[in-house]
Design brief:
The complex is a heterodimer of chains A (185) and B (797). With 185 residues, chain A is an all-alpha fold. Chain A is 71% helix and 0% strand. In chain A, α2 packs antiparallel against α9. The longest helix of chain A is centred in the middle third of the chain and has 18 residues, at 60-77. The model of chain A is unreliable at 30-52 (pLDDT under 50). Helix content of chain B is 37%, strand content 17%. In chain B, strands 3-4-5-8-9-10 form a 6-stranded mixed β-sheet, with no helix packed on it. In chain B, strands 12-1-16-24-25 form a 5-stranded mixed β-sheet. In chain B, β24 (602-606) and β25 (612-615) form a beta hairpin. In chain B, 44% of the residues are buried. Residues 1-6, 692-703 and 782-797 of chain B have low confidence and may be disordered. The chains are: A mainly alpha (185), B alpha+beta (797). Chains A and B meet through α3, α4 and α6 of A and β26 of B.
């Protein structure tokens, strides 16, 4: 795997310089790469909610869960974190295999600075999104953000690299790595 | 002349003694009267301008979500609607709080509701039904298809003080004018003209009462009635009457007519709802008509106004004819006074009266309410809870709660009917049970039964009782093992690993301990799966010793056991006491892919003005890897499909599920914990106390001291009865395998890959890389494959 090779290389050389060069290179590459969707802060497209999730098997329960997740998403985007959490909880209650609920719930917890809770939610999202590299990449980016906030830089770098491995066009991941490099003494 | 002079002299120097004394007495009387009036005045102002009423805080259940594809049990849904105060209609529901059931559809005009973070307006919802399912949901009148709707939370309980008064405060401008007119017409038609006391009304009442020779008419104004309810004791004495009149005048001097009227509308006693008093027109409108006071019609207003005189006598729930006559009297009076027209009068007379009260406010979910109350009192005082009108939104599902209560009650009765040794005369000694149901993915407590009868014992056996879990503890051993290499060959423990179910002697507190299996036999080398499915004690003890008790305790604690555990060899057999809630939390972690969820009962606390004081969000902690959790679930599915819990299939529960029976070695405690992907329930059965000692030699030995039954016999049937109904609305669902789980066919005897020599294979789950490499029948040194074939070609067997 590319990411494992790169990370092993980083470890062997033990060089922050290499990390920085790598981060810059990836930023350039990511800028040129054809990213599949328009990105906002967490790579969530500002599209009508259910269009993004057409891959999921649909049944009434899942549909109701998606509707609640959509409400939560709208509240999340308008800054109503607590209200969004309330919707996400109901959505999980209805359908515990809806990966997007866990992802956005993770984002809400991140924004509330509840980083460890965010990480736990993202672990569920990761498990459920194994077949979707673009969304998996977003999960890893958010995980990287959580680790950064917890000052676990090595874990954050690892998460961003995993994100890029899933979706090389993920500018947020590249930006995360660059940020880590820039923060090095 | 001298006498005159003497008198004049006396007048100049001072008064005559009698006159001086008179002045002092007069002054004293004035002082006392002033003080008396001042005290009454301060009392009046204090009550009016302080908090006028104690509004009890209320506990609500969770809302109930409806969606297409949901299984619909008619009886359950109609029961839920009734509890929410919905009334059946014979035509398309046109008002909030009504519903109509036809063969293929259910139309519900949803109530408006103030959720913690949004206001819900209420609309007409149509559910198209077929084959016991909701097929389609439509919002009317637009006809728009929708995919989700919510039935509002149910009121579960309220925190009353000793007075048990239930109120819904209304402002003066909220009820319709006809309600005010109706009340004034019959209770105080000169309200706006008197000064608190109406001499004309007093005189009229006196005259009527003298004529009749009995007290048949009162002359009290609304203000006097208010004063009497606010301040005074109910005894009928002249002193109290005098005080009432004085205070009524003081109230009128200090406050406007509108303020007085508004206070009256919220204070007046309007009947009983079980043990709870109904006070104020706001609550009366809900109680009698299931609606807000603002939506009352003329006919309904007249009925309520008529009730004031004697709520219990004129209640339509007690005497329909008296209620109808009283309403007519009110309407007549309104017509006389010109408040309504004759057309309005005729129409209002024709309206029907409510016949049945809403579901009685009794003790619903009492153990759960106690559990919630305990949590609340950590942050809010009793005074605040009983007077500030907070609303507490919980995770409780009332339908599941009622199912749980019924399952426990009926299950215990069935056991007593079948096993005579379980019968006890003394109510406090009877067989007991508890049930908790949790959502594994959120930790929401959906139902809680803490005992057989709350009235007899408020001790919550679900959260307070510490009992030995017995075999219910075993999955923690296996969870700890599944993450570790074995001591024998360093390979990781898997479901196919062989463990020895052979005699073992261990040191326990300086004494030898020889664990035994339930069947008193040893089974030799068995797979881990067999050991768990058949709940083999000895094999489990060996695994615990190999893994290490520290590791076992660490795993149990990570999964949710908070009670300190004794690190003794018998820990593996569940001898260390725990609570049912802890065990449910731990099993829920297995069901939830290794994530432990903190059990949650309270979601939001909202103050009397609608401000959210608290929000409690779900809390996750990783207890096991998702792979460990899945492997354990897969093992526990085997317990159900062919192990100690297989009776659950005979009892009619056919969904994918996993579970474990639990029986203590002395048969005092019987447990069953089982879960589907969406719901977990845990049941305990046992006695609080050992059976009374036999008093005669004939009785000795005829009655076991404990339960004498296994988890499969005692707890499992209650679980099955509850879960069959609780999961009925859910669609099919199965446990999802996480990444890095592989499935192989293996031989159940040897734990090796199934091959030609051992075709009786079972499908087993493994963490990738830990699956067996050898095939059953293959020697250790054989090359396998082609070589084996060649070898078998020349085999003499």
């Amino acid at each position: 795997m590319v990411s494992e090779f790169v990370f092993d290389t980083i470890r062997r050389v033990g060089s922050h310089l290499l990390l920085g060069i790598l981060g810059l290179s990836l930023t350039v590459v990511a800028g040129c790469a054809d990213s599949q969707r328009q990105e906002n802060t967490f790579g969530v497209p500002d599209l009508p909610f259910s269009d993004s999730f057409g891959e999921l098997p649909r049944d009434g329960r899942r549909e109701a869960s998606l509707q609640l997740t959509a409400e939560g998403y709208t509240l999340l985007r308008s800054g109503n974190l607590d209200e969004s959490i309330s919707r996400f909880q109901k959505a999980i209650s209805l359908s515990p295999t809806n990966p997007f609920t866990y992802y956005f719930f993770g984002e809400a917890r991140y924004l509330k600075k509840e980083y460890e809770q965010s990480l736990a939610l993202l672990e569920r999202a990761e498990m459920l999104l194994q077949d979707d590299p673009v969304w998996l990449s977003r999960v890893y980016v958010l995980r990287g953000r959580d680790f950064e906030a917890l000052a676990w830089e090595e874990d954050a770098a690892h998460a961003y690299l995993k994100a890029l491995a899933q979706d090389p066009g993920n500018q947020e991941a590249a930006g995360g790595l660059a940020r880590l490099f820039a923060a090095q003494p | 002349m001298v006498g005159f002079l003497k008198r004049r002299k006396a007048g100049r120097r001072g008064r005559p003694k009698r006159s001086r004394a008179g002045r002092w007495i007069g002054a004293g009387l004035v002082l006392v009267s002033t003080l008396y009036l001042a005290v009454l005045y301060v009392t009046v102002v204090d009550r009016f301008e302080g908090k006028r009423w104690k509004i009890p805080s209320k506990i609500y259940s969770d809302s109930h979500i409806l969606y297409p594809g949901q299984g619909l049990d008619d009886a359950h849904l109609l029961s839920r609607l009734r509890r929410l105060g919905y009334r059946p209609a014979s035509v398309v529901p046109a008002r909030p709080g009504t519903f109509r059931r036809s063969e293929e559809a259910l139309e519900i005009f949803l109530h408006p509701f103030s959720y913690p973070d949004h206001e819900f307006e209420g609309f007409l919802l149509r559910l198209q039904l077929k084959d016991g399912q909701i097929r389609r949901m439509t919002r009317l009148p637009e006809g728009r298809e929708i995919f989700m709707a919510e039935l509002e939370p149910e009121l579960v309980a309220a925190f009353f003080d000793e007075a048990w008064e239930e109120r819904d405060l209304v402002r003066l401008d909220e009820p319709p004018r006809v309600l005010i007119d109706a009340i004034l017409a019959v209770e105080d038609s000169r309200f706006y003209h008197h000064f608190g006391v109406d001499p004309k009304a007093v005189a009229r009442a006196l005259w009527v009462n003298l004529k009749r020779g009995a007290v048949v008419q009162g002359g009290s104004t609304l203000t006097q009635q208010l004063v009497k309810n606010f301040f005074l004791t109910p005894e009928k004495t002249l002193t109290r009457k005098f005080n009432e009149m004085v205070m009524a005048v003081l109230v009128e001097m200090r406050y406007s007519k509108d303020e007085i009227l508004e206070a009256y509308l919220n204070e007046i006693y309007m009947g009983q709802n079980g043990a709870m008093g109904v006070y104020g027109l706001g609550q009366a409108a809900r109680f009698y008509f299931g609606k807000e006071a603002g939506k009352l019609t003329l006919s309904e207003s007249a009925l309520l106004a008529g009730l004031i005189k004697s709520p219990n006598q004129y209640s339509p729930f007690h005497d329909l004819e008296k209620a109808r006559s009283r309403r007519e009297a009110v309407l007549n009076r309104m017509l006389e006074m010109g408040y309504i027209s004759s057309v309005q009068y005729r129409e209002a007379r024709k309206s029907s009266l409510p016949k049945t009260p809403p579901a009685r406010q009794g003790l619903a979910a009492p153990y759960f309410v106690d559990f919630v109350r305990k949590q609340l009192t950590e942050h809010y005082s009793h005074k605040v809870l009983t007077s500030e009108g907070m609303r507490i939104f919980t995770t409780l599902d009332m339908q599941q709660q009622l199912l749980a209560e019924e399952s426990v009650a009926k299950g215990l009765e069935r056991l007593e009917a079948r096993f005579s040794h379980l019968r006890r005369e003394e109510p406090s000694h009877k067989l007991q049970g508890s049930l908790i149901s949790l959502e594994p993915q959120t930790g929401f407590i959906k139902a809680m039964v803490g005992g057989r009868d709350y009235q007899i014992s408020q001790f919550n056996r679900a959260t307070q009782a510490r009992r030995q879990p017995g075999s219910l503890f075993k999955p923690f051993i296996y969870a700890a093992a599944l993450s570790r290499p074995t001591m024998t060959d360093g390979a990781f423990y898997t479901a196919a690993s062989l463990v020895r179910d052979e005699p073992i002697t261990l040191d326990s507190g300086g004494r030898p301990w020889n664990p035994q299996n339930y069947d008193r036999t040893f089974h030799g080398a068995v797979t881990l799966r067999t050991a768990l499915e058949q709940s083999l004690n000895v094999a489990t003890v060996r695994i615990a010793q190999e893994v290490g008790l520290d590791q076992v305790v660490g795993t149990a604690q990570a999964m949710g056991i908070q009670t300190p555990l004794k690190k003794v060899p018998s820990l593996a057999l569940g001898t260390s006491e725990v609570t049912a809630l802890e065990m449910a939390t731990a099993y829920a972690a297995i069901a939830n892919g290794g994530m432990r969820m903190e059990p949650l009962a309270i979601k939001e606390v909202v103050d009397g003005s609608g401000r959210i004081l608290e929000r409690r969000a779900i809390k996750m902690t990783k207890a096991l890897t998702s792979q460990q959790a899945y492997l354990l679930t897969y093992l526990l599915q085997g317990v159900v499909d062919h192990g100690t819990a297989k009776a659950v299939r005979r009892l009619g529960f056919d969904r994918p599920m996993a579970g474990k029976t639990g029986t203590t070695s002395d048969y005092r405690d019987a447990w069953f914990a089982g879960f589907t992907p969406e719901l977990l329930a845990l049941v305990w059965v046992g006695f609080d106390l050992p059976a009374p000692t036999a008093s005669s030699s004939e009785e000795q030995g005829s009655q076991p001291e404990g339960l004498g039954l296994s988890g499969a016999q005692a707890a499992l049937p209650i679980w099955a009865d509850f879960m069959k109904q609780a999961t009925a609305p859910l669609g099919p669902g199965d446990f999802l395998a996480p990444p890095q789980i592989v499935f192989k066919n293996i031989d159940p005897q040897t734990g090796l890959l199934a091959g030609r020599d051992c075709p009786a294979a079972i499908r087993e789950a493994f963490l990738q890389g830990t699956e067996p490499q050898r095939t059953c029948g293959e020697s250790e040194n054989s090359g396998g494959g082609l070589f084996e074939w060649f070898q078998n070609l020349f085999s003499t067997q």
